[in-house]
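Inputs:
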Amino acid sequence: MVFKLNNHLLSMIASGNGHGEDSPYFEGWKAYDSNPHHPMENPNGIIQMGLAENQLCFDLIQDWLKNNPKASICTHEGVNEFREIAIFQDYHGLPEFRNAVAKFMAKVRGNKVTFDPDRVVMNGGATGAHETVAFCLADPGEAFLVPTPYYPGFDRDLRWRTGVKLIPVVSESSNNFKVTREALENAYEMAKLDNIKVKGLLINNPSNPLGTILDRETLRSIVRFINEKNIHLVCDEIYAATVFSQPEFISIAEIVQEDIECNLNLVHIVYSLSKDMGFPGLRVGIIYSYNDAVVSCARKMSSFGLVSSQTQYMIASMLSDDEFVGKFIRESKTRLAARHGVFTDGLAQVSIKCLKTSNAGLFLWMDLSGLLKEKTFEAEMALWRVIIHEVKLNVSPGCSFHCTEPGWFRVCFANMDDQTMQVALSRIRTFVNKDVDTKKPKRTLRWQGSLKLSSPRIYDDFINSPRSPLPQSPLVLARN
Amino acid sequence: MVFKLNNHLLSMIASGNGHGEDSPYFEGWKAYDSNPHHPMENPNGIIQMGLAENQLCFDLIQDWLKNNPKASICTHEGVNEFREIAIFQDYHGLPEFRNAVAKFMAKVRGNKVTFDPDRVVMNGGATGAHETVAFCLADPGEAFLVPTPYYPGFDRDLRWRTGVKLIPVVSESSNNFKVTREALENAYEMAKLDNIKVKGLLINNPSNPLGTILDRETLRSIVRFINEKNIHLVCDEIYAATVFSQPEFISIAEIVQEDIECNLNLVHIVYSLSKDMGFPGLRVGIIYSYNDAVVSCARKMSSFGLVSSQTQYMIASMLSDDEFVGKFIRESKTRLAARHGVFTDGLAQVSIKCLKTSNAGLFLWMDLSGLLKEKTFEAEMALWRVIIHEVKLNVSPGCSFHCTEPGWFRVCFANMDDQTMQVALSRIRTFVNKDVDTKKPKRTLRWQGSLKLSSPRIYDDFINSPRSPLPQSPLVLARN
Ligand SMILES: Cc1ncc(COP(=O)(O)O)c(C=O)c1O
Ligand SMILES: Cc1ncc(COP(=O)(O)O)c(C=O)c1O
């Protein structure tokens, strides 16, 4: 007897592609996976610059672990705690964990604000935290505004299983991609015309992919906007500790404690240790809400994505070591600043500009619009393919972040060692110099050649959709 | 300026009570929390017998950890792996983890079946796994059949955020709560009359709360049923390794590899290390589906509830140690059998019967119907309150499992040491003897007294709803 797979057997969610993985960006991952760079074994392989990972300070972490064997329930020194921790399953989390996280969140924000451990709700990474917040705040069909360019994971996390919509708020290079009141109003009015109920505004500060932070005036204007409209404000601050130079990071927590009119029930922070500590594998996500009902509901929902108690225990010990945390945060900023400096200087030598207001994050927002054949996203994708297949760097094209101006690329710089970064830099320099030397017609031809390699359908899929699927590899989904 | 909390600000899910925590069973947790038993410090406190935890073999685990320091990324011996593991975030999981889990699942099933590591999808406990399966298989409003009595967490896990319905399939004490074809057909037809589309059948084998396993004939009849109806079969086998005496456990994996007509695309197993290993805090849940599309979709959804890579690494090492695993499974069964024996014998001395077909699980299904004032759930709740407040044992009333016959109680026996179990037994004996000595009117009066303590609304809420909220403490939700 032969059975056919009947699609009605599965849910609409399972039959659809809201997960966003049927995206053209797969090409970059596939290319990297089949030919990854290795300094000795594969020096001509592709360098992975599409991962917003923070790998610069693991020596500090590993030293700390060696000196603190009691931090683990799997060491001689800590194993007597194993039983109690392995059976611990309270969705409030270990009290030590919540306290340590609350303290860490304050420290990362220069101790200008405090966080109440009782409002700290854990979840499976910021990924799980975002979905949970969306489930708490909006019904299917309702929407959040999101300034562009934005982290493509939002399309999956806030929308896929919740049925919630995202509406882009356009920002532009002419003012360094600032979020303006005008753009917010525009997006809000557009939604109204479409009969879509806007439930909130999602901001990401510091921004992935821009590497910029929001200034105080912008933050205040955002708070005024959401209060006037009576909609929620979700602030993803998972890059808070990566602000490596002046001006300093200003958390939304600082703004709402200012003398500003604000309904605190509307304000929610999403946080995680994936970027600031560099632990994406440990899946430590945090929702910090000023709204009691959201704290309570999110905590119940956290049952679907609790942090492993083994990990809670280790993190609690690590983050409650004040001296270590202070040193780690300082050193991490220093190393990020150095890396950022070397990289931008290297690019400047061949006249490549990056968004100059960037002073945070694990990436640069690189302007290659001057190298585009024409000012279109097709040309951006063509250039992207050249960068992957010829320059052999897996960077991310701006369109994957819903950027509305072609020619921008996000380049991650903290997921590799110094040597690899130098290789990457020299490849870029060689490419640009060669490209400048080459006459226009030739360059055009070469790019058109690359273009032909892929089916035009891929472009259509992508370019036609302002809220297109996210650029993630089916192989390594959550890394971005 | 004063702001009022506007309920429309939140989602319908957040405003509703689908989380199931507004339940009368909270009383038991509250009583336990405010007066927990301790052999020295509070010998007259309440003994917690409402937690299906497996605490009998932690000595073996702790010994293993001491002998295997490389299993942890937080030991001197293992710390060099820390960086690689902390940044590992592939939703396929560590290959070693998937392999070890697949091997373990086979071993637990007597190696009569094998599992393909590529079909092993991780998730945040069986809790997350169930929700994910529901999201994959059914649209809002569609339903799963579930034989009663059943684990109350299903009401939250499968329904709350998915909008999926559960329809009880009634089983009865007269045939030891067996799942019959007739009852399945009845429930299916009832759903049809209500215009509800049945998408699947959820079984829990071994059963919480019954402690029974399904025999081969019942399993075959279930497979025939779901194939005839072309609906899914989700088998929660998280108590697989707790089968401590003959007959042996038969996994659905064994049935579908028999010479039986079965569309494998319909069959999905949910598993977890919370019960068999006793690690609920580590949140290791597994979906094993024979349906490729479900594997692929569930894996994408697992982004919301990945297992901490630190925990994956440790579990991979532990479960790939064949000798240890063999010894652990054997020893665990031996200790569960002994505990079960002592407990049932102790109850038999005062003529309390338990479901006699039980040979699995971490609990007994105790028949106190003879002690009910009348054969109603009000009387069951009254007796339950006496057991909590006077006998000082926090057990779980049958109605919390949607049992359709009053008088049954689930009593967990593996979450305490021998001494505490003896205290619990002697309390039960004292109570029953006293109760037998006391004349009827007096007993009735006392119980009515207890009844008055709580508002009748609580009963109404609960008794009127066949799919009532789950009995979980807001304090310690996930423990059950
Ligand atoms: C802005 C932003 N939010 C959320 C996430 C997801 O983080 P997590 O690993 O904590 O799920 C990322 C990861 O790249 C991100 O850049
Ligand atoms: C039958 C059943 N399924 C699922 C669960 C949830 O298990 P986990 O801790 O893996 O989420 C439980 C917990 O009691 C259970 O008894």
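The longest strand of chain A covers residues 198-204. Flag for discussion at group meeting.
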